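tool=predict chain=A
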Amino acid sequence: MNDRPFHHGNLRAVLLDQAERTLREGGIEALSLRELARQAGVSHGAPRSHFVDRQALLDALAERGFHRLADELEAVIASDAGNAGNAGNAGNAGNFEQRFRAVATAYVRFAVTDAALLDLMFTAKNGDAPEGLRVASERLFAAFGELIGRGTEAGELAPQDPYRLTLLFAATMQGIAVLVGSRRISSEDGDRLIHDAVSLLVQGRQDT
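tool=predict ok
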C-alpha cells in the first residue's frame, strides 16, 4: 500500500505542490514536513531527502514562487512585443501602456491569489538565502527592470533611476493587492487603481 510509483522520482514536486496548497489555505504556520509526508503517503522521514529542514522547504517554496511570477510577467511582456515593434510612435505609446497595465494586473492577481506565498517570497533574507532563491528573486526584478528600461528608452517613462521606479511600481501594486485581498476594496476598484497608477507613471514621460 505504501509502494506508490507516483511518488518515485517526483516526490519533491509533490511536496511543493501540497505545501503551496497548505500555505494558501492555512498559512505558513500550517506547514510541517511531517504533515506533508502524511498527505503525500510516504514515511515521515522521506521529505528530508529533498529538504533538510523546514527552512529549506520554505526557501524552495519562495524560489518556486519567484520563478512562477517571473514566468507570468515575462509572458505578458513578450506577448505584445511584436505589435509594439510594428507600430508608429502613437501606437507604441498605447501598446506600452497596455503592456505595462497587463503586467501590473498579473502581479496584483498573483499577490491576491497567493498572498501568503508572496509574503514568504519577500520576507526571505537575501544575504542568507540560498543561491537559487537569490537568482529567482533577481529574475523577477529583472523582468520589471526590462519593461521599465524599454519604456524609459522609448520615452514612454520619464528618465529616472530604474531601480527606484521598479521598487515604486512593485510597492504600488503590492499595496493595491493588500487592499483587494483584505476586502477593503473590491476587485473592480483594484482594477481602477491599477489603471490610474499606470496612467500616472506613463503620463510622467517627457514629450518627444
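The CA atoms of residues 107 and 173 lie 7 Å apart. Residues 1-52 form a domain with the Arc Repressor Mutant, subunit A fold (CATH 1.10.10).
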